[in-house]
What we know:
With about 120 residues, the protein is mostly beta strands. It contains no helices and eleven strands. The chain is globular and about 40 Å long. The protein starts with a strand and ends with a strand.
Amino acid sequence: xxxxxxxxxxxxxxGGSLRLSCAVSGRTFSWYTVGWFRQAPGKEREFVISxxxxxxxxxxxDSVKGRFTISRDNAKNTVxxxxxxxxxxxxxxxxxxxxxxxxxxxxYWGQGTQVTVSS
Length: 119
């Protein structure tokens, strides 16, 4: 009932920046949390960052704190992930996901977008 489409991935040099977008459509509610996850080749999927849709409260993984920021445009039903000071360790498939803010499980996922950071 909720569809998520990521965009903005690509190839960037170390030290550069990218902005990922997550467009949300379908049945949505204001009391949602939108999160970004990533999975590098041969690695486990890890949480990156999240934002509550209505209140704007954010949660950051230690690995990206100070470099990544998350924001949302309520009118466009879009969440943005601004990634700065990228390193090769940030190379991964990035996924957008949604959960109701009252539950712990992210139950809607996008298809993922590849981010590759070259050294």
